[in-house]
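Give me structure tokens for this 555-residue protein.
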Amino acid sequence: MTMRTRELWLLMGVLACSGSSTVVVPATPSTATVAPAPAPPSVSPTPAPTRAVTTDSQPRRVLTPTVQAQVAELPRTRPVVPEGLDAKPCTVRVGRNLQGALSDARGGDVLCLPRGARYVGNFSIPVRPDTGFVVLRTDPSVELGSGRMRPSTSGQLARLSSATTSSTLKFLPRSGQWHVLGVEITSDSTVPQGPVALVEVGTLVERELGALPTDISFDRVYVHGWPQQHVRRAFAMNGGAFTLTRSWCDEIHATGYDSQCVISWGGSGPMLIEDNYLAAASENLMFGGGDPKIPGLVPSDITIRRNHVTKPLTWKGQKWNVKNLIETKSSARVLVEENVIEGVWIEGQTGYAFVLKSTTQGGTCAPCSSSDWTIRRNLVRNVGAGFSFAGRADQRPGSVTDSTVRRFQVTDNWIGPLNMGHYTGDARPLIFVAENHDIVFSRNVFEFSERVREALLFDISSGTRIAVRNLTMANNVFPKGQYGVGASAIGEGLRAWQVGATGRSTWGRNAFLGNSTVAYPPGTTWHGNMAQALGAVGISRAALDRAVAGVVVER
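Here you go.
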């Protein structure tokens, strides 16, 4: 058996560890016009039992389902930061003229800022005539530790701040090879309107890949606005290779505008965002949202690991335009792995943790689309809703693009509480609208909630009349909620699945908390408590807890 075959078997949960059977139910094609596809096997006209229960006393019967959806491609590469940069001794001790030191720096330099120094201005990194990394850091006498930077440990850092709406630190076209270590980057706390972006990588005037700033890394930095201040972005990442690690991003919010810790729409990647605290009001992480000037550019090869992605509840009711936690409009080959993702409610949007769509924002970017995302082993909690897949939902009339959401693989995540307490929203774990293609949704657990509407909704009211093609659903746990599996204007259960999931879609073994008198696809089981449901699909919470251990740290 090849590794790829083994991965597909594991993905579908074809494990002979219990006596329960696995049944795969292909969806029937909808009446909408779609591209030709091989005809799926027909579904038996005999209704499924209204309550199917599996027990270990039943004969062992394991079918071999096939993942019909195309599997997402992982990032092909990551940014490379040379080893040993943190240990290099100071070569330039910066005095009052920080901009002069930045302009004069050469490859191999280590620019050291005095302990607790304060620099106010709008600083820029120009292109250099040589190569080699330059380090910009607080003096090594300040102990940074090996873990994540926190506000409580940032008191002795050198601080860069802007007193205007212009960036505190900007990387100009063709600049590159900079490592920023142990520095505080912020704005003047006395002004109500802070910078559009505290850190700006690229200027969006670049019209070729070679002009993008690249090889930019930030490690153990404290980047933030202030509690009552309007700051739209921490990092506007529109360059090449970019790394953000072991850092703290906080108080990024604005009224009347979207705000993000990291946004990229004109950056090529690769990007590594690992072991950070990321708190922003609108979208904590955002890819796309503007049409790039460089033809064919899509932010690609993005790794997002072991971050605490959150919105403090104290922001609720502050008119900070809260929307979601992670959103894509244009990106490719993205890995979201082992993060704690939490805290979103209905305000600027309807409280989804993930908003996954393909959009050319200005109608001029033909390749702008979202594809090849892998979302696995994340803890998602305190959200108003789960995953929103909206393939072509925002494409404007006359748009030059003909793309949609393609090849998303969502596995081994734990989601909940959902739509509970202060964190209310659309009350749906999962929704598909506007023609998504090749989605694998496997081994995900949604905690029980009485305030769930549809556990899974196929919205076929959009212009495409198709919610999703080639959907694999296997070994998940859902609360049944009010309507279970539903499709707009169709109803609940088996018929909703047949109409909502078209093409080569398959339904494996899925467990629901609750009960129903409506026929559901064979392979559906109904349970009175979480322990029974988890046992039916062979999932343990302990594995997820181990995966995200240490991700949440105190301030």
